[in-house]
Amino acid sequence: MAELAFQPLPAWHRAVIKVGSNLLAADGGGLTPVYARALAAFIGDSQAQGREVVLVSSGAVAAGRALLRERAVPAGDLAERQALAALGQAPMIALWQSLSTRAVAQVLLTHDDLRNRRRYLNARATLRQLLAIEVLPVINENDTVAVDELKLGDNDNLAAIVAALVDADLLLIASDIDALYRADPRRDPDVAPIPHVAEITPEVMAMAGGSGSVVGTGGMRTKLQAAQKAAAAGIATALFNGRDAETVRALGEERLRGTLFTPGQSRMQARKYWLLHAPGGNASIRIDAGAANALAGGRASLLPGGVVEATGDFHRGDLVDVVDPDGRVVARGLCQYGAVDVRRLAGRHSRDIDGVLGYSYGPAIVHRDDLARVSS
């Protein structure tokens, strides 16, 4: 296998590091500090230098399964996975606390926490305060209450969303593989690693294989998706082998042996980024061709006159997809009115809002400041 050289790690003050189950689960299914110890040392050294770190950690399901090993509880359907996650959260947090020089705080996030603007902002304020009081936040998806169709699904993408949530400078993804390769290095030992990716193109995405771990939910594809989300927010992503002690130690010396994904654009305004990348629901507003053309200009609000219909049950302030006459999502935004009100206002003039509803939250269904266009 080709040798992977060290390269400079981008300068950073605040970073999110994601550690997957494949680095935390022992062969018997429980948790082990074998690889976590070096990662925790890197986090502690970084904090001692005045840097801020947020940890996104998997491992709860594996820990829960190990506690019930003699009962052979499967982890097949959602309820079983939720039960194992609930059981395993405590030992997973205990592992990190035992390795951390600072207090550890558990933060469990759900799809709705990242979709609802108010809860999203509350989560951001909480995480920023934890960092301000020099606590290590350990984040995981709240599997115990998530429903299957609304699960975030993997912690790679969750880590990218959290990186934007806390305005991180860098996303670090600790894996069980050295870097991104053009093919699976476990099947082709002569394949060369890719040290730098400036843009995640369809060709780059096609290099991703399946998950290499029986305990994790993500493979290389989810890591590329995470790097893509981070890049959209102007955040670089470093993928490295968390099982290699020398590689982890070099991070503290600002050297990376792995793949660096650099953003190709300046940081997107945080609000617009959230609108585009927060998990979506089933709510949508279909608009006519005239409204679609107006929104394409980039500075127009969605007014009642351009609305054809509203689909799904949503409330004022919820995130909705805006769909053109051909069924394509052309924008996402925070709706000023609930679904029932939008249906009543569809096709009407803005001046009629108060007369139709008996109240008004303004002339726009979705204000331009709360609207982000979806690139075609």
TrEMBL record:
| InterPro entries, A to Z | AceGlu_kinase-like_sf, Asp/Glu/Uridylate_kinase, G5K_ProB, Glu/AcGlu_kinase, Glu_5kinase, Glu_5kinase/COase_Synthase, Glutamate_5-kinase_CS, PUA
Q: What are the GO BP annotations of this UniProt entry? A: L-proline biosynthetic process
Q: Which UniProt keywords apply?
A: Amino-acid biosynthesis, ATP-binding, Cytoplasm, Kinase, Nucleotide-binding, Proline biosynthesis, Transferase
**Residues holding ATP:** K18, S175, D176, T217, G218, G219, M220, R221, T222, K223
Q: Part of which pathway?
A: Amino-acid biosynthesis; L-proline biosynthesis; L-glutamate 5-semialdehyde from L-glutamate: step 1/2
Role description? Catalyzes the transfer of a phosphate group to glutamate to form L-glutamate 5-phosphate.
Query: What protein name does the entry list?
Result: Glutamate 5-kinase
